[in-house]
Amino acid sequence: ENGIERPTGYNVSFHYNPKVEGHHFGRSHPMKPWRLTLTKQLVLGYGLQYAMDTYVSRPASRQELEIFHGKSYLNFLSSITPENMEQMGDLGRFNFGDDCPVFDGMWDYCRLYAGASFDAAAKLISKQSDIAINWSGGLHHAKKNEASGFCYINDIVLAIQAMLTVESRVLYVDIDVHHGDGVEQAFWSTDRVMTLSYHKFGDFFPGTGAMDETGPESIENPGWKMALNVPLHDGIDDEQYRDLFSEITGAAIETFNPGAIVLQCGADSLGGDRLGKFNLNIRAHGYCIEFVKSKCHNRRLMLVGGGGYTPRNVARAWCHETSVCVGASLKNHIPGHVPYRQAFTGEENGDGLMYPDLANHPSKRHPNLHSKEYLQMMKQNIHTQLRFIQN
Ligand code: TV1
Ligand code: CA
Ligand code: ZN
User: Fold this and answer.
1) C-beta separation of 196 from 214 below 8 A
2) pLDDT surpasses 80 at 172
3) Of 80, 96, 146, 318, which has the fewest CB atoms closer than 10 Å, so is most exposed?
4) What is the ipTM for the molecules in this complex?
């Protein structure tokens, strides 16, 4: 409207409701909605709002959540409070506890992050957006009738279901350090959704996602072989991850030829994460987004958040990835007027830089347990699996 041209040919939309920031899982719980406040402040500080459409998203309705989730689970989720939880019972049945606590405003929080994914899907469906972003979503562990791993409502499953009304095939890619089990399981039995998760495997939550976990084995099941898993060990570095990601994701896109891609950008795969064990820097994590974007000239693309437990680095990664979507490059010095800028300053917090070396601190670097042979074997295995699909 001011005569300034958008930097790329992509229409990017950003879906967010700042009310999510007011919700807290509990003092010591690693999931901090505060990371979303920091992300928003960085995005605004760099002026990225001028290069995309920003929307205050609406909360999802109960009816919308029923598209995936069971009614009795939703009854429970919508009525339980810290005050009545003693009388309610059923906490165990729905898997509430330390990871998924009952907290004040939990139902509103769930409706808010799911609503943002519904809004993002709607913009992609109507083709008003080419790329739609919801950093508050990406809660990939939630099941139809159960909470799991900090996730209560599976906004990703709901968004994919919405896109399946206009697309015959949707690819789901997950770079969170944890296995995307809830999404994999939801689409276990359909050949319209391929799921691909990269994750740490072996004595790590949720324990699923082995290489040979490819869907229920039956020739009558169209979903057989449609789940791709890339199990990794501690300490994978930038170069190894980039190489693996481009080869495997590239092959999956080529074979499956999806009309839409949903990319879960969990930032707990970064070096220095409180829960993760990888050594990735911001640019290597962002490379995955660049790579997928480069394959989306004629496909819809949705980005969602997910895990990420060192809030300043989550904000850096998701702000950088927003810039990748709009085609801007950010200067390394974080602008001086960003509120909460002190969260990014000082040696401990990354020296006021957007792209500090996260894997550089000897105390934070994880020993790299990947051999060339292991990485090669994994690529080979995925290529073999993909040959079953292209008939
Ligand atoms: C309360 C207070 C809860 C401190 C949970 C780390 C805490 C964890 C806490 C924690 C923690 C997990 C398990 C063990 C299953 C349990 C958003 C029987 C310091 C997408 C979810 C990880 C990751 C769950 C979510 C995991 C996501 N790790 N401190 N809990 N058991 N749960 O191992 O994929 O990022 O850690
Ligand atoms: Ca993953
Ligand atoms: Zn995670």
Assistant:
1) no
2) yes
3) 146
4) 0.99
